[in-house]
């Protein structure tokens, strides 16, 4: 491959990586999401998942006093979107 063709390809690849890094920087970390959830429900974190649809959010599962709580946290703002209790556990 000629060097003059390689440069535009490298620029495209670099731009794609930069765009992905910028988007990831817009989200709070999973560690921050866990801290937010634990401020709301004291207990043991059993699972943390990131979901980008329909809106980027973290799902944090916490076991507290025999109940399993699922707390959804907006990945951009850190706002708690919902809190559900599974009373079957």
Automatic annotation (TrEMBL):
Q: Where is the PepSY domain?
A: 28-83
Any Pfam family hit: PepSY
Q: What is this protein called?
A: Peptidase propeptide and YPEB domain
Q: Does the keyword Signal apply?
A: yes
> Which key words are in the record?
Signal
Q: Which residues form the signal peptide?
A: 1-21
